[in-house]
Amino acid sequence: MHLSILCYFAAKILAMKIVSYNVNGIRAAVKKGFLDWLAEEQADIICLQETKAQDEQIPVAGLARLGYHTYSFSAQKKGYSGVAILTKKVPLDVVKGMGIEKYDAEGRFIRADYEDFSVISVYHPSGSSGEVRQAFKMQWLDDFQSYLLQLRKEKSRLIIAGDFNICHQAIDIHDPVRNAKNSGFLPEEREWMTGFLQHHFVDSFRYLHPDAKDQYSWWSYRANARNNNKGWRIDYIMLTENLKNEIRGAGILPQVKHSDHCPVFLRIFE
Hints:
Blueprint: H1 3-14, E1 16-22, H2 26-31, H3 34-41, E2 45-49, H4 60-65, E3 69-73, E4 83-87, E5 93-96, H5 101-104, E6 109-113, E7 118-123, H6 131-154, E8 158-163, H7 187-198, E9 201-203, H8 204-208, E10 218-219, E11 231-232, E12 235-240, E13 247-252, E14 264-268
Parallel strand pairs: 1-2, 7-8
Antiparallel strand pairs: 1-14, 2-4, 3-4, 5-6, 6-7, 8-12, 9-12, 10-11, 13-14
Helix pairs in contact: 6-7
């Protein structure tokens, strides 16, 4: 077989769509049609955050009927936090947590390793409840970055999907002036994000859509915010710079409404 044809088929095999979605409770999302949407979406890998469920409460059977293998990492506290990876291809390995007890107790990190890359589903803490949790968040951010930089020495091709609970730039939030002192848009959080990207990570959405405005992934339940599109872009699919040239598409799906967040997606390797 001609080499170009072999390369074509290899590319087709690798082509995939990855979705990240903070479902704000997977059981609640299922009641709102999450499984029906998943069947239509036909993504290869789904990274979920804020599942708010123990492992036995996740609808594994329903997901299996759709062709997904389910790997989840729940918080010790019931009905709180939790992350999962749904994947049509069985990973070589799955790692739950970062090996840091105070974070792993909250179920915030899970990684699936494949032949040529690894996918992470991560749920960064919110600091909106007060100073204690904001301090926890800032420490998490430093520790998370250190962990990833160390991990990258072993797993050089990383895709990091999740709710970062940070708007990076003014373009990522509907009202940057009034929110300048709110957790999620604080100067020190935005500075962290800038520094993170400078460590050779890429924001896939902004890479393809550098000037796109009014593109948000989360809306408050208050003041009819979603209908008025007064939102925040806090959900990201990041990747290591060595995967940048493999990006074929990235976007946000605000019409999907099982949560106060909406899914974001990445097409890669096509």
